[in-house]
């Protein structure tokens, strides 16, 4: 059996947002994605889909082209235009044989498409491929030893952070949080995602913990703390 890298870390489950109005397709996908150890979010129209994507930042979106109200292309366009959601990979479900749909889909920023009627196995395989390509590294995984930015250096071999040339003393969790955000720079993470990935979901702590750690990091880093950006109502990102 093929085991995905993220499945070997039991604290990380990717969340997949399905935006589709056909209930039986949603049900089939939900069943199969869950069987693969993924979490599922569902939206039955485009506006609801956008709202959910902005609220919880899923790992990947399966987006149907034919939706009531906003169609899939417009949904994709809006997701890719919004800095909060532009980093989320999108797989588009298109009508059979419509070349135009495929081309336009990719033009508006979809990462892949699959034509209906599709094989669930094939779709799951595509989901996994894209997750592997996009999925941020997981704390504990061998990572790039040193992350260098103009004014900030994060050396995970020596566990040292240099902020504007000055060594900064961080706790283990502060270091991991900073390293994680920096390694996945410009990607927005919700507090829940940071808890999952930096602390592990089996730890019973509040999302406020993330805010506290960010605040301390900013204090300790001083000027370079500006890299840690707050996206109100969403979460945090490392901005270069
Ligand atoms: Ca549909």
Radius of gyration: 19 Å
What's the architecture of the largest domain in CATH terms? 3-Layer(aba) Sandwich
Under CATH, the homologous superfamily of the largest domain reads Response regulator
| CATH level-1 class of the largest domain | Alpha Beta
Largest sheet: 5 strands, parallel
How many DSSP E strands? Answer: 12
Number of domains: 2
How would you portray this structure in words?
Helix 2 (46-56) packs parallel to helix 3 (72-81) and helix 6 (172-183) packs across helix 8 (208-221). This protein is α/β, with parallel strands linked by helices and 240 residues long. It folds into 2 domains: 15-134, 3-Layer(aba) Sandwich (Rossmann fold), CATH 3.40.50.2300; 147-238, Winged helix-like DNA-binding domain superfamily/Winged helix DNA-binding domain (Arc Repressor Mutant, subunit A, Orthogonal Bundle). A 5-stranded parallel β-sheet has the order 2-1-3-4-5, sandwiched between helices. Strands 6-7-8-9 form a 4-stranded antiparallel β-sheet, with helices on one face. A 3-stranded antiparallel β-sheet has the order 10-12-11. The longest helix has 15 residues, at 120-134. The protein contains 8 helices and 12 strands. Strand 8 (160-163) and strand 9 form a beta hairpin. Helices cover 39% and strands 20% of the residues. Bound molecules: calcium ion. Calcium ion is lined by residues 20-22, 64, 66-67.
